[in-house]
């Protein structure tokens, strides 16, 4: 328990530091017509985007300024909704003049409890806090006055550790909601270390997957419709083990090993006991150790070269307890014949290896209709747009 409390204190302090960095802004006045404020100001003019390393032909720019930007979802008409964590706010941003840079921003909600997760269905915005999910109906017609919303479910656990949630609607029309383990390592009860799903009105909740320490990102294959999700490995086993994981869940009822086995083959020294690796579903791909893999998407656009079609991009937030930091990048997992076939870095440069300081931390990725890709960054407080033009 003493170790757990120490970890919580460290994590909170780190979060406060990043919060201070991400809130750099200038005073803004709202538009009297639609209640919006500018989505781009001078606050991010000095971001060192030239340090970002990308493959030839790719470039990166600032799409919008969103303090503490976390999970993202885009409406069919082009409104981007963005969750945060300790900031307690949910934002909407729009590119109203078609220049591929957001120019208007609204604060949809404030005072929420780590509203990391956002999802859309039938014109309604769903926001996940630690213990509940709220629906904001007909949201795009109410950006300047969305109201308090309707709580559709409020019975999730209230623990803060790994309690913030990524949410999304699956191909089955159900809302998927994870509940992380409330500690670094331990035996969770039936309410934790799992992914749940429910109807869009909050009814019919059921467990979809178990043995999941902490996922803050999942998506579905555009071809097989199978769920793929990231899972953060446990801490305090050293710098190089265990690995974060990319998992595939083609059906309900699968167990991915936590807390008994990590990375598919590493038995936990305290909880592994007589368990065998064969009892659990192995990872589709082991990622870097402690990279904090979060949001991910299959590339379904037409802007990038064809070699990126249906490949998985992953935002790696970066390590906090490794002697030499790792992550702070966007990675790529190659998919061949429906299976993971390689893992490589796609975009890096937010971390200075020499000084071990990071000016940005990727959180989520999103592929837009024009084929470009957005990347949220809760430390720099921005959303980037990555584009490609043949060299």
Main attributes of the structure:
mainly beta; 1 helix; 391 residues; 34% strand; five-stranded mixed sheet; Neuraminidase; globular; single chain; disordered N terminus
Short description:
With 391 residues, the protein is mainly β.
**Biggest sheet record:** 5 strands, antiparallel
Cα radius of gyration in angstroms: 20 Å
Give the overall average pLDDT.
Answer: 94
Inertia-based shape: globular
Number of domains: 1
Beta-strand residue percentage: 25-35%
Number of strands: 30
Query: What portion of residues is helical?
Result: under 10%
CATH superfamily: TolB, C-terminal domain
Oligomer: single chain
Distance between the amino and carboxyl termini = 55 Å
Structural class: mainly beta
Strand order of the largest sheet: 1-6-5-4-3
Low-confidence stretches: 1-26
**Count of helical regions:** 1
CATH class annotation? Mainly Beta
Query: CATH topology, what is it called?
Result: Neuraminidase
């Amino acid at each position: 328990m003493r170790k757990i409390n120490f970890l919580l204190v460290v994590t909170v302090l780190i979060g406060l530091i990043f919060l201070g960095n991400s809130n750099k802004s200038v005073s803004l006045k709202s538009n009297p017509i639609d209640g919006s404020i500018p989505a781009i100001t001078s606050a991010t003019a000095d971001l060192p985007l030239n340090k970002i390393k990308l493959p030839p032909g790719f470039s990166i720019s600032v799409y919008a300024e969103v303090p503490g930007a976390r999970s993202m979802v885009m409406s069919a008409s082009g409104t981007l909704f963005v969750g945060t964590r300790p900031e307690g706010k949910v934002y909407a941003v729009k590119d109203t003049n078609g220049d591929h840079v957001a120019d208007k921003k609204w604060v949809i909600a404030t005072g929420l409890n780590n509203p990391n997760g956002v999802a859309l269905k039938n014109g309604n915005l769903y926001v996940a806090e630690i213990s509940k999910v709220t629906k904001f109906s007909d949201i795009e017609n109410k950006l300047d006055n969305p109201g308090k919303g309707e709580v559709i479910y409020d019975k999730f656990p209230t623990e803060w550790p790994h309690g913030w949630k990524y949410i999304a609607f699956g191909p089955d029309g159900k809302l998927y909601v994870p509940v992380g383990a409330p500690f670094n390592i331990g035996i969770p009860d039936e309410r934790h270390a799992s992914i749940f799903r429910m109807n869009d009105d909050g009814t019919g909740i059921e467990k979809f997957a178990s043995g999941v320490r902490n996922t803050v990102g999942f998506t579905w294959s555009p071809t097989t419709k199978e769920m793929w999700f990231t899972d953060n490995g446990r801490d305090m086993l050293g710098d190089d083990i265990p690995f974060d994981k990319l998992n595939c869940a083609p059906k309900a009822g699968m167990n991915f090993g936590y807390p008994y086995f990590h990375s598919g083959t590493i038995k936990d020294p305290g909880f592994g006991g007589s368990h065998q690796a064969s009892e659990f579903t192995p990872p589709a791909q082991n990622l870097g150790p402690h990279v904090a893999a979060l949001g991910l998407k299959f590339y379904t656009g037409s802007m990038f070269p064809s070699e990126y079609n249906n490949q998985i991009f992953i935002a790696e937030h970066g390590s906090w307890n490794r002697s030499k930091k790792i992550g702070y990048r966007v990675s790529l997992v190659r998919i061949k014949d429906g299976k993971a076939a390689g893992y490589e870095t796609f975009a890096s440069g937010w971390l200075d290896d020499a000084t071990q300081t990071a000016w940005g931390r990727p959180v989520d990725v999103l592929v837009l209709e024009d084929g470009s890709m957005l990347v949220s960054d809760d430390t720099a407080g921005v959303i980037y747009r990555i584009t490609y033009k043949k060299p």
